[in-house]
Amino acid sequence: MTKLIINADDFGYSKGVNLGIIEAYKNGIVTSTTMMTNMPFAEDAAALAKANPELGVGVHLVLDCGFPVNNNVPSLIDEEGKFRKNDGMSWNAEERDIEKEYTSQIEKFYSFGLVPTHLDSHHHLHGHEKVFPIVEKLANKYCLPIRNVTNHAEATQLNMVQYFDQRFYGDQLTSDVLLKILDKVSSYDSAEIMTHPAYIDEALLSGSSYALQRARELTILTDKKILQNILDKGVKLVTYRDIG
Asked: Looking at residues 225-236, what average pLDDT do you find?
């Protein structure tokens, strides 16, 4: 039987993102989410996590969106104190600043009175050759699984799922796209599908190039025929608590 995690990224980005993720959990197939602890609505996300304790909640590590949590990471920020955008950021960033900031983000998650289920990262930066050793070190320090973004679980001792699928993303999403992904992941013992459901709000529209598509994702993820397909396949919907 396949153990399948369906993770909603960007918890904490905005109120609309938070509420969309909870809707996709309560009335859809999302089982897990990852919080951007540096974003303005992280505290709101933490309150929703506490109100929905069966939802798996991990840390969505950030180096290229919003402001840092740590106030002394000069190689990561621009003249306004914001994270630099992804174009070249990971090459200019110093490893010590990356580790300091990621540690601060994880510690902020714990400060909410929550224990994370796992780690992943915004725009998959933990798959970068410069960043991965830092995240691996922190995952081992905090005894947390990590998203298998490169699908090379055999290369590390970390507790990863066997297969990670990031194809549920883009302008052309339909229920059929997700059904094809489900056909693929059901051939593995454990897998994760990345999603980004949301209700659209001003913060999302003005801050993200991937905004309207999230409403379509929410519709698909709460489509009852998708859940029935999962049940028919004998796939078990789980969180990272159930992997290992």
From this structure: 96
How crowded is the C-beta side of 86, counted as CA atoms within 13 Å?
10
- Of 87, 165, 152, 114, the closest CA to residue 11 belongs to 114
126 annotated to bind ligand? no
**With bands split at pLDDT 50, 70 and 90, how would you rate the model's confidence at 225?**
very high
Is the pLDDT at 24 greater than 80? The verdict is: yes
Handedness of CA 221, 224, 226, 230 (dihedral sign): positive
Question: Which residues have CB under 8 Å from 120's CB, separation 6+?
Answer: 7, 9, 34, 58, 59, 60, 61, 126, 146, 147, 149
Q: Tell me which amino acid residue 109 is.
A: F
Which residue ranges make up each domain of the chain?
3-242
Determine the Cα–Cα distance for residues 38 and 25; give it in Å rounded to an integer. Answer: 23
Whole-number pLDDT of residue 92: 79
121: which residues sit within 8 A by CB, 6+ positions away? 60, 61, 62, 63, 127, 131, 135, 147, 149
pTM (two decimals): 0.94
Angle between helices 175-185 and 212-221 (to 10 degrees): 60
> Is 60 known as a binding-site position?
yes
Calculate the alpha carbon distances from 67 to 79, 107, 205 in Å. 12, 16, 18
- What is the C-alpha radius of gyration for the chain, rounded to an integer number of angstroms? 17
The second-level CATH assignment, the architecture, of 3-242 is Alpha-Beta Barrel (3.20)
